[in-house]
Amino acid sequence: MMTEITILLVDDEAAFRQALSRRLNKRGFNVLQADSGSQCLSMLNNHSVSVIIMDVKMPEMSGIETLRQIKKKYPDKVEVILLTGQVSAQDGVTGIKIGAFDYLTKPVEIDHLAEKIKQANESIIRKEERIAENAFREKVAHQMAAAERLASLGTLATGIAHEINNPLAIINESAGFLSQILARQKMLQIPCRKEFELSIDKIITAVERAGKITHQLLGFARNGHSDYTRVDLPELIAESIDLLTHEMSNRNIDITTSFDPLSKEIMTDPFQLRQVFINLLSNANYAVGENGRISISTANHGQEVAISIQDTGPGIPANHIEKIFEPFFTTKPPNKGTGLGLFVTRNIIDKLGGSIRVDSKLNVGTTFRVVLPKCLEMQIKAFETENSATDWISHIKGESYHDKNSD
Ligand SMILES: Nc1ncnc2c1ncn2[C@@H]1O[C@H](COP(=O)(O)OP(=O)(O)OP(=O)(O)O)[C@@H](O)[C@H]1O
Ligand SMILES: [Mg+2]
Question: In the chain, what are the domains?
């Protein structure tokens, strides 16, 4: 069924308006009426109108002036068909210059008018489509630019991290060495001993923080390649939780897990995937307060596995969602977070052939959903050349693997 076209009929002569309105109604149009230019403008504020049919000659505000204001306020939302008298057809030409769709001379021939209304409506639909298309194009271009920026930032950042690691190690060692010297018996009495100690502590803390940054960045850049092997997913997740328990131990956080037996084993890089889990779990842990809940679950989806990490934290505000994967974006207090956790996480997951998505509701919580291939085609090939991969492949395909291993 064709959707009803809503038109607004603007004319100061009530009798003409009502007669025309009745006839257009009969032809299936939804007709609204206004008796002046200003009423027309105020009606446009709260009615969705596609086509306006307007008399040019009106006492208070002329049709041409009204048209000017309509076009200024709604350049692409509504088309205007002007009605002119026989002697004032020149007004119609002026109207078209300002942006009227067309003009008809009174008395109007109803079939002709109905046809014009349909054309004007088509024109509005096409304009809307064009606007939507342009908006979509812009959005894609924006996303691509952001992705490119992130990619080059990532390369730069990992390069720098690599270069900084060596001097960091030297600073750390030297600070440790200074501590040792200070601890010697004959040093106990030296002047400013406390200040020396404090300074060394500061150096060590700062180096630790810098180390955290390089560690994150280099974690996924390890020689630029990943080491794929069979990974027991529940085991890896349990291990990652264990690594964080000391952070959670003094708060009453409830961690639950639920694993889908069909996606117990996957082929991936366990070290990198562990970093993903640690980053996501440590964010969840930071987000939930006392008595919070974190649930981790896996679900089998054919050739893929979906891993959800859900928390009952405060949620992520809409204007942050786009930014959380950017490097160095953090809402933690200064010196607390690197803002690299999610950036690195996303990079690792990309590299492992997966994807990550976030769903968050303010005051309810956040869920990160990671989807990973159980096994990439090329991994099978690599695995095949090194091992007899038949077990593995049949496992992935859901064939006899379970039977073989059940005894
Ligand atoms: N589960 C979550 N709940 C609420 N906000 C989150 C959650 N995970 C991430 N965020 C938001 O995303 C930001 C970026 O996270 P990311 O892990 O990249 O860095 P960080 O946690 O701030 O620093 P670091 O990982 O070094 O500790 C966080 O500062 C926080 O604002
Ligand atoms: Mg983090």
Answer: 6-108 (3.40.50.2300), 141-221 (1.10.287), 225-374 (3.30.565.10)
